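Please review this one:
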Amino acid sequence: MWEEVGKNGKKWERGSALLRGFNPINIDEKGRLAVPTRYRAELRECCDQQLVLTVSPDKCLLLYPLPEWEEIERKLSKLSSLDKRAKRLQRLLIGHATECEMDAQGRVLIAEPLRNFAGLEKRVVLVGQGNKFEIWDEDIWNRSRDEWLAEESMDELSPELSALCF
C-alpha cells in the first residue's frame, strides 16, 4: 500500500494535532497572512509548504495542508451528485478550493474573492482544528464564539460528548 508523503518524503500524519491553537494575525495590504512561526517548519516538512484554501459554510475560510485536502476532496468527490446537500457542499468546498504556497517568510496569499467571502479585513484569527486551520475575521469570530457559548448548555450534551473528559 502506498503512503502519502510530501516532496521531501515525510509522511503526513492524518489525525495528528499538528494544527491547534488560537492565533490573532494581521493580513497585510496585499492580502497575505503570515503563518505563525511555530507551524512553519512542520508545514514545510509535511506538505512542502503546499496548502489549499477554501470556503466553509460557517462563513470562514479553511486552510489545509495539501495531503489532508486531497483526502477530503476524494471523499467529497465520491458523494452522490443526486443528493442536493452533497452537491452544494461539493460546489462550495471544491469549487472554491485554491492551491497556495507559503513563501520564504511563511506568508500565504488569500485571494480577494476568498477574503470577501469571509469578510476578512485587517485583523483575523487563525483557529487550529487539528487537520486544518479556520481563518475568521476577528470581529466575526468574537461574536460567533460568544453566541455559541450563550446557546450551548452542558446539560444537554449527546452521549458521545458527555463521555468526553476535559
Helices lie at 37-47, 66-77, 84-93, 112-118, 138-151, 159-162. Residues 1-12 have pLDDT under 50 and may be disordered. Residues 7 and 48 are 6 Å apart (CA to CA). Residues 19-162 form a domain with the Chemotaxis protein chec fold (CATH 3.40.1550.20).
